[in-house]
Amino acid sequence: MVAGVGRFPDTTVNQVFTSLPPVAEAVRELASALDRNHVAVDGGALLECDKVEFLERWRRLRTADDLEEPLIVHFAGHGTEAGGGLFLAASGAVSDERFLADSCVSFGELLETARLSGRPVLFLLDVCQAGQSLVQQHLSDLAAHHRQDDLRDVWIIAASAADAPAYGAAFTTATAEVLQQIAEGELDIDTALPFVPVDTFAAAIDRQLDRTDRAAGWTGRRTLVRTADPSVAPQEQPFLTNPDHRAGAGGGALTGPDPRLREFALTCPQGMDPLHFAVRAAGNSDPTLVLFSGRLTQLNNLQRWIDNHEGAQGALLAVTGSPGSGKSALLGLVACLLHPEIEPYLGRHVAAAVGHFAPARTETVLAVHARELTLHQVTTALHDQLTRQRPDLACTRQPSTESLPSGMRVPRDTSGCSAEASTKHLLADLHTAGDVLLVLDALDEAADPAAVAAELILPLARAERPPGGRPGPRIIVGTRPWWNVLSALDAHLQQHPGARLDLDPSSDADRDTLTEDLAGYLRRLLPRSHHAQKQVDALAERLARFSDHGAFLAAALYADLLLAAPDLAPAQPPSTISEVLDLNVAALVRTDPWIRPVLDVLGQARGSGMPLDLVHAAALTHHPSAPDRPVQTLTDTRRALRKTAFYLQTTPDADHRVLYRYFHQALTDDTASRTDPETIHRALLDTVPTEEGGVRDWSRAAPYLQRHAIEHAHQAGPDHLDQLILEPGFTKYARWEIVVDYLGFARSSEAWSLGQFLRGLMSNL
């Protein structure tokens, strides 16, 4: 039901509401946008209706044939609060409080009839003081003894706070635009969700309002409010269908893995990243189709080390190798087979593909993907997993030196840093837990790899084993051989050569074995009907003999090129990841040049990735259109991401929108230098809504920026970092632990001194 009342003729009877000319056209646009989303608008847009007409349409809607169909009710016009209630001004209404109940629609009555309808109902209110509806809803919940875990039946998105005005039907126009974006797939909702969550819908309307206000030069601030859902696992809100929920509805290559796995990936402890381990183990973007091949010698060595629970072969095994050599694939196999929270989703798929690799189960298994995580975040992720698997351990006690085994040395805590204290707790509890296997991948990609190695990995490696042959904690680490950064770990491995499993070939015999492994992998990637075994073997030999690094990744990328654009395959196959990526991108940009700017921006994506609208904004700023060319749209950027889905990993964010990043760090490294960090930083800051006076409102910034703006500022330069930290409101809404940890290793004296100040401040809070 879509209604709007904007005409209020001037009369001499009491006091009248002023006319609102924009309402009629805005309401018609909204009705059309709902129709595009397959929402039937009963009777079309209801314009200039009086109270009787409105309530009759509402009654007819509630008593329609399908008594379980969810309902959406939108009203645009005047609203006013009186006696604690919100009233919607129908045609002929007067603003004198004495006559409001006679001439206006009481939202309180709408709310109660909606609750009794037995259907889910969503109210969209574009009126002044619309937020009073949420006050009434809360009071109604209290009066009805509505429990927090009860299923909610009524949802509200209101254009203004309870004491604030709404302007010019702007909320209705913005809502119509967002509905068009949903219909086009531009809102980019997590494909696991069949419906668009109300909070995601409301946040998108808020962003759209900010964009239109800024374009119009309006510096005021609108405050949208909505019904809150206190449940950690929110209920389904079946008002608007997510067009990307099913493959074939525009989603195609981005449908991703089992929705249950994606949901677990969204709710699991930060840092576990089951999708990373799943995709690496599979050797392709579908974790249920395991294409892992070869590496028999390395798998045998890995299994022997895992099966040795007493740790006679040492408490540390470092799996090293160049980018794309298969380190994460080996660690992914271990995590998918042994981690108790990942194995139910993926264990059978992996076991069926690599039946010869069957390591003995360890009592407790913890897994962390350390990419861009600080020491504090790594240890917190391990703490979370440990307490989930071993609730008998008290990870919050203050460790004493007596609780640590002989030889396990940790630095004395003199700064009040939460990361050091957390690491002490973890080391003590791991020793108490006994048989624990830690899988830590991408150490070299951590925010502070040297600190993670010195404070966590090496204390575990050097600790004396428990007496009586009892098992103790052990750790498998995956890292590139960046010994200039990881010098302490390098020194330990030189003293203990048996603690290193190196995947890079060092002899002709190694390259012969690598050739066989690559040939097996390529046979799984390429159909025999199109590629003769002799051709596959020749490609495998070239990659094994001449590839500078990352032969397995280069093989995967080149196989994709052969499948997608065989006419572009050169007579002499490439031998490096960079060459293969350039060939693949060249094939794609023949038909869509916008792909290259989009992929260049993704080289700067942090954490789990960057959302569509930020990728688009950064690409437009870094590669502006020529004056005689049309400006690329959000749809163009989304199409570019879909065409390059093979190279990307997608993860749902906290607001249910999709995050994009390269599926392998080597691709990030290869493209990061193609963009200017300062330009990217400024483009991202420009997306943050502003208040009056141009001050950025960080409460409404994208979750990605609340997490990673400080990293982009650091990349842009010390001045940008200092300006961001001192910007009003940033530290209030940014993730505090990220701010504090990141400043701890920022490489400018100004940022370092400010970081020390913030650490001291946080230790006293």
Approximate strand percentage? 5-15%
Main structural class:
alpha/beta
Q: Give the distance, in angstroms, between the N- and C-terminal Cα atoms.
A: 50 Å
Mean pLDDT rating = 81
Task: Offer a quick outline of the entry.
The chain is α/β, with parallel strands linked by helices.
Write the layout of secondary structure elements.
Blueprint: E1 2-4, H1 23-36, E2 46-47, H2 51-62, E3 71-76, E4 79-82, E5 85-89, H3 100-103, E6 104-106, H4 107-115, E7 121-126, H5 132-143, E8 154-158, H6 170-184, H7 198-216, E9 225-226, H8 259-267, H9 274-282, H10 296-307, E10 316-320, H11 327-338, H12 343-353, E11 364-369, H13 375-389, H14 418-433, E12 436-441, H15 449-462, E13 474-479, H16 487-495, E14 500-502, H17 508-525, H18 533-546, H19 551-564, H20 577-589, H21 595-602, E15 610-611, H22 612-622, H23 634-643, E16 648-652, E17 658-662, H24 665-672, H25 677-685, H26 703-716, H27 718-726, H28 730-733, H29 736-744, H30 749-763
Parallel strand pairs: 1-2, 1-3, 3-7, 7-8, 10-13, 10-14, 11-12, 12-13
Antiparallel strand pairs: 4-5, 5-6, 8-9, 15-17, 16-17
Helix pairs in contact: 1-6, 4-5, 6-7, 9-11, 11-12, 13-14, 15-16, 17-18, 17-19, 18-19, 19-20, 21-22, 22-25, 25-26, 26-27, 29-30
